């Protein structure tokens, strides 16, 4: 009875309350919009999204919207995370490249589903925090690099899938080159701070096909200052 009372009056820090919010998030925001990929749904139910949000924003962690994480970046809307994850149809043997680590939430979702995740973040403070957070949570299959994501991670290529969580004005050729035969890449393409198009790219027999999916709005893909 005492535990129930404490949980009731301290909802922002109550693990049971966060679990309830997480289940509701999956049911109302993700399944209700038609996502049926079971591994993705299970990962979204399991990963504690509030732990990837600054303490002052945790009450909004399970809202149907992006949440600021500092340095002008956000953790994406839960539905978009689930949508992008389900579209690459991750397998337990896959090696996945993510561009734009942010707080590490998308990497954690992928880490629940695939063999290994290689994720790149250009902002050193975010990369360092994500690396520490993911390590503390036991994700030994996720590696975080601080670098310009436009160039990908050539030494770890090829990848079964590539997930880009920042908007590029065009699809970076280095990422296309690092996509495995039969692989999939999902990326928002368009002008910074404008509505962009989420695109699914697939490689079959060395040929690339692309499909426009839906209108989105992501933070821009940041490049190194000395990059043209």
Helix content: 25-40%
- The helix-strand sequence is HHHEEHEHEHEEHEEE
Give the termini separation. Answer: 62 Å
User: Total number of helical segments?
Assistant: 7
Percent range for β-strand residues: 25-35%
Shape: globular
User: What would CATH call the homologous superfamily of the domain at 63-216?
Assistant: Vaccinia Virus protein VP39
Number of strands: 9
User: Spans with pLDDT under 50 lasting ≥5 residues?
Assistant: 1-12
CATH architecture group name of the domain at 63-216: 3-Layer(aba) Sandwich
Return the average pLDDT rounded to an integer.
92
- What integer value in Å does the Rg equal? 17 Å
What is the CATH T-level topology of the domain at 63-216?
A: Rossmann fold
What does this molecule look like?
The chain is α/β, with parallel strands linked by helices and 228 residues long. The protein has a domain at 63-216: Vaccinia Virus protein VP39 (Rossmann fold), CATH 3.40.50. It is built from 7 helices and 9 strands, in the order H-H-H-E-E-H-E-H-E-H-E-E-H-E-E-E. The chain has helices at 2-9, 15-30, 38-46, 78-87, 105-111, 124-136, 173-177, and strands at 67-70, 73-75, 95-99, 116-121, 142-146, 159-164, 179-189, 196-204, 207-216. Helix 2 packs antiparallel against helix 3, helix 2 crosses helix 4 (78-87) and helix 3 (38-46) runs antiparallel to helix 4 (78-87). The longest helix is centred in the first third of the chain and has 16 residues, at 15-30. It starts with a helix and ends in a 12-residue tail after the last strand.
């Amino acid at each position: 009875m005492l535990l129930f009372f404490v949980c009731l009056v301290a909802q922002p820090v109550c693990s049971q309350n966060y679990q309830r919010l997480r289940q509701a998030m999956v049911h109302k925001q993700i399944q209700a919009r038609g996502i049926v990929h079971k591994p993705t749904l299970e990962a979204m139910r399991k990963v504690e999204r509030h732990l990837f949000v600054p303490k002052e924003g945790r009450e909004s962690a399970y809202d149907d919207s992006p949440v600021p994480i500092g340095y002008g970046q956000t953790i994406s809307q839960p539905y978009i995370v689930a949508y992008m994850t389900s579209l690459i149809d991750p397998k337990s043997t896959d090696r996945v490249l993510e561009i734009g680590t942010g707080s590490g939430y998308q990497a954690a979702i992928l880490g629940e589903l695939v063999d290994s995740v290689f994720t790149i973040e250009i902002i050193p403070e975010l990369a360092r925090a994500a690396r520490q957070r993911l390590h503390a949570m036991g994700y030994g299959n996720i590696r975080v690099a601080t670098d310009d994501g436009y160039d990908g991670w050539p030494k770890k290529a090829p990848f079964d899938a590539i997930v880009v969580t920042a908007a590029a004005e065009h699809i970076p050729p280095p990422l296309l080159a690092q996509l495995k035969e039969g692989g999939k890449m999902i990326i928002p393409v368009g002008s910074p701070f404008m509505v962009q198009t989420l695109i699914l790219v697939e490689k079959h027999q060395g040929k690339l096909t692309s499909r426009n999916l839906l209108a989105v709005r992501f933070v821009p893909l940041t490049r190194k200052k000395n990059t043209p």
